[in-house]
Amino acid sequence: MDMSRRGSGRPLVGAAVAAGALAAVTALGGCAAVRGAQAGCEGSQDGVRDLAALALLGAHPEGAASPPGFAEPYRGCDDDSSIGIGSGAWLYAGRLYTTAQAPTAVTGFYRGAAAADGWAVKAAPGAGGGPEGSDLCFERSAAGGARTLHLRFMGPDEAREVYGYTLPAGAPPQTIYRVEAAAAADGGTFTCGD
User: Fold this and answer.
1) Number of Cβ within a 10 Å radius of residue 6
2) Of 20-29, 55-64, 104-113, 137-146, minimum mean pLDDT range
3) Cβ 173 vs Cβ 75: under 8 Å
4) Listed ranges 27-36, 114-123, 157-166; the one with the highest mean pLDDT
5) Is the pLDDT of residue 131 over 70?
6) b/e string for 73-101 if b means 16 or more Cβ within 10 A?
7) What is the helix (H) or strand (E) element at residue 141, kind and residue range?
8) In the chain, which ranges are continuous DSSP H helix?
9) Distance (Å, whole) CA 169 – CA 72
């Protein structure tokens, strides 16, 4: 799923994976709906709160940090019936980070941390399988339904346009990335490749 901002200033679902993926859910047969979610976004506060509390959103490699103004996870529910999945509503929560480390070091960290937390790497959205140093997608089934976790790298222009974050003037080059978890509000089925 592509994440972009619309007039509301919060990340929303777009049409293509390539422009900025960190939101999709893998549903496994028989999974229950995400805790607290109902049809659409109504009653989704508990599910959104659960996603925002995932340990991997706060995990980061040594030296990585959330930029000023991004210390708390962004979160919400979007009801977009155009994606054709169940009610079309999905929950998301994520964090933005910067680091002096190369993307390969960042992906190495998240591959290890995700595996230790029960997540399985499935794909790099739009990159055909996730070579070291590229975007990654992880899947995990948990109480309340299956979830995905995306690691997404971005350049300074995308960080500014999508998140309103600008690297400080004179700052050394930084790797900018986000980690975002997502789940279908109604327990609907879609995968990292959607």
Assistant:
1) 11
2) 20-29
3) no
4) 157-166
5) no
6) bbbbbbebeebebbbbbbbbbbbbbbbeb
7) strand 136-142
8) 45-52, 55-58, 103-116, 156-158
9) 23
The span from the CA of 123 to the CA of 167, in Å, is: 29
Three-class DSSP category at 49: helix
Q: Which residues contact 152 (CB under 8 A, 6 or more apart)?
A: 3, 20, 21, 22, 125, 135, 177, 178, 179, 180
- Higher local confidence (pLDDT), 177 or 83: 177
* The model's pTM: 0.72
- 87 neighbors 185 (Cβ within 8 angstroms): yes
Q: How far apart are CA 26 and CA 109, in angstroms?
A: 22
Compute the distance between CA of residue 16 and CA of residue 81 in angstroms, rounded to an integer: 15
Q: CA-to-CA distance for 108 and 130, rounded, in angstroms?
A: 11
